[in-house]
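Mods, move this if it's the wrong board.
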Amino acid sequence: MHKRASVLRGIVAGTVAIGLTTGVVAVTTRSDASPAIGHVVSTNPADFTPNINDGAVFKTAETGGVLYAGGSFTSVTIPPGTPPPPGTTAGTVKRLRMVAFSTGNGLVSGTFAPVFNGEVWAIAISGNSLYAGGTFSTVNGIARRGLVKLDRITGAVDTRFDARLTGNVTDAVIAAGRLLIAGTSAKKMMGLSLASGGDTGYINVAFSGTVAPNAGASQVYRFAVSPAGNRLVAVGNFVGVNGLRHARVVMLNLAANATVSTWHYAPTAQMCADAGLPDYMRDVDFSPDSAYFVTVSTGFVANPGQTGLALCDAAARFETTNLAPSRPTWINYTGGDTLHSVAVTDQAVYVQGHQRWLNNPQGRDSAGPGAVERPGIGALSPSTGLALSTWNPTKDRGVGGKDLLVTGHGLWVSSDTTHIGGEVHGRIALLP
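Not the wrong board. Structure tokens:
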């Protein structure tokens, strides 16, 4: 069944060190850019990753041989092995919504253990500093609404940084020498000083309206910055940007200041078949060469006459320089199940959610002609949009994973479930 529960949203990477054809309808470097790794990742998960014991992982960031994970969890277990070196720990440890562990052996940092009183949805790292965003109001007992700056080794709060936000943060990227954030605060998107958290005015864009009365207040959920550093695509439940019609998806030009691009795709103003899911855009990512971006969504199936145009329970590719697309380059429908996250590499477009099938434009909570089974996770051809025929690790579906992160180690899969590739991996796994 298509899940209709409301979902909260929105990490990005940086630098850190711990001492340790049927079925598809044709149609300044950022800190979270997916690299071109030259191959499709394995379907056999690495064995050393720790188990997150409860809740979910919403975002991850890797750098310097360490992976940071944020979410709603409270404890982590490392399988017994060799004695841990100084500064790391094995066994079960308490970690309140953030953890850092070695990407080589899974051992958890013994020094990085910040305490959040709410969920973590966004992470960005610069030098020795880690910026975390989410739904919290205190960190280590210090008042910080939605955003905090931490020492990336000790987890201590940098009290000189205070953005004084009025809402939650659901995504964050370091770009153009600033911390770009999105969420539910009054401005929806801001470019903040890395030192103080003050609004630099870099993003002076007015988001307005909401797509339906039951969609909640206007917000920007997620965004991606092109690896070239000159474009940003944001998704949310807004209908206007600077007084112009830009429903659910908008592109910004990044230069001396962020400005609204003329890019416009009219069908994003359309509803999907499930009126209970009017806020249906879920994630976006650019290709490593910045030539195109891919969106993923919920919403159930397209309304009659909109198949091939409407972005409903689908992954869709758009060319970055085509500012007036009449339809996506390709679109791959699940047939009625949500896709929550996407990561684009040179060899594959990885998608994750609670989907049962891909290549399923005629499915309606069912497998239509040409549908292929891809429970929980799948990989698409960047050129055709078809599911890769030999890549099918399978995973528990759950609500659906909110984050995919590609690094030199492979594909990090974050979710709310415990099985992938026929193995137990609690809420986080690495496909090397």
